[in-house]
Amino acid sequence: MNASTLERLEYNRIRAMLADYTVSPEGRQLAERHEPETNPKRVRAWLNETSEAAALLATGASVPLSAMEGVGPLLSLLGKSKIYNEQELGYLSAWLQAIAQMKRYMNGKRIKQGLLSREIMSQWMFPVIYSSLYNRLNLEKCEGGDLKLKKNNLWLSSLALIICLSFSSFSSVHAEAKSTVKIRYESRFVSEFPEITQEMAIEKGRIFLPLRDLASILQLMVQWNQKQKTATFIQPGKELVLSTQTNKIMSNGQTYLLDVPLKIYKQRIYVPVRFVAEWFDGEAKWDAQTRTVLIKDNSPFISTSLDHEMYWFDHLKGTLYRSTGGQSSIKLGSYKLPAGSGSGPTFSSIKAEKLSASNRWLSMNLAVHGIGVNYVRHGLFLKDGQVLNHSELEYSGEYPLKHMDRYDEKAVLSDGIQVQIMNAEGEIIKIYDLQALTGIEDRMMIEKVTDKYMLVRPFNTPYLVLIDLVKKESVKLYQRFYSEEDQAASENVGYNSTEFHQFFDLKLVKEVGDTLYFTRTSIESGETLTYTYTIGK
Fold first, then answer.
1. What CA–CA distance (Å, rounded) separates 392 from 372?
2. Calpha distance 264→221 (Å, rounded)
3. What are phi and psi of 219, to 5 degrees?
4. pLDDT for 352-402, tens place per residue?
5. Lower CB density within 10 Å: C or N end of the chain?
6. For the ranges 40-54, 86-100, 402-416, which has the lowest average pLDDT?
7. CA–CA gap between residue 326 and residue 322 (Å, rounded)
8. 421 closest CA partner among 378, 392, 389
9. Distance of CA 10 to the CA centre of its chain
10. Taking Cα atoms as reference points, which of 524, 492, 487 lies closest to residue 506?
11. Helices (H), 460-521
């Protein structure tokens, strides 16, 4: 077939779809290298294999395919004076066990093992294992159903011993779990979930996750002690110490026993999911049908971390906590919660930023959805770990709260009336009175602030106000930009109206020097209208 025919048949798209069904890097490479076949006999053979595979799948249950990543290079060195370490022998063990498991599976299905069976055990599916092992070594079953090598070479005997002893080893179950088990997680108050590696392992029926992945899901601070080989988990009011060397657990001064210790695999520390989750009032549920583990964070916290620090805010009690360097958490203070907190859907966040070596800026945007949205925005300046200054802005409505609290390494603290600008050392360098600057008797959200201007929006009226700090005057922008007809219309709509959101909501889109560019949509034509304002003129 020529290139034009392949393009007309969309062969590359079909080949990409085929690659998506593979379960190993080797399988993907095989699919990506696949070329059209014109030999009728080979096409019929492939169709027969496909029919056999469909019949096999129709018998039910899952085909026991294990991950094959990274094994090919190891197998290619068999018989070439390569001395394997324990971890590499473990990989080979897992590989051989996967083949034996596949053969037992097919025998158990009692199907005719013709083309498909031969292909599974041949060069087509396992080219390296076929040529390096099955053609050169005689294999037999050892006690417990595992594979053993008959030849009496030292390295072969070592490999056989590892194979027989590691049937339930951590590395072999890790390879299988990585390709077949999924992780889901839920949280009571966190709306943005952490990114995790999706790696896990199963040993003796217990699920293990990498140390820091589980800590992220459960909002725990974790400190690893390399010398003592212990991991300390911290949450306000609770601590837990686990070790790779002992089953003893230390928690809040008490000692307990755990039936399985931590595991180290590929230089990563793995911890038992269910035990740690339940210790911190969470849950870990296993769905055997979908092979999914669901981890639930039932804590009342939202949290954030910065370097070796972690901050938690209790969304039920309004308490803020901080921990540094693996130390016990301390209370920083209590702060107002939005109405409906703990009952309505929550979309809250907390963020920490570094201002200097010892000073931090902490912003908490608390939002609870009910009939409308109830917001409380807290800004906190922390100096040497203690709260130096705090602002609180409360707002309720359908229009989203847009409030800027940082610019040019400065912190902006506002209650909607007064604005304080602080530098990185915690000094108040500017104070503004929004009502005096605008002549509007209302609280306002600050959408933009610089040294030359501020954009503010009153809570009860849907128009954008520009405060020109150079000219020391304010401008209701709709009065400068709109026609008289549109001015009258805009004054009679509210934040909740469709007309406001579609036609009257001005937006700052860019700055060029001292010139600001705003846009909105025309109510007559639907086109985008652009307006400009130059600061100081």
1. 20
2. 19
3. 60, 50
4. 999 999 999 999 999 887 656 788 999 999 999 999 999 999 988 766 778
5. C
6. 86-100
7. 11
8. 389
9. 35
10. 487
11. 477-481, 484-490, 498-499
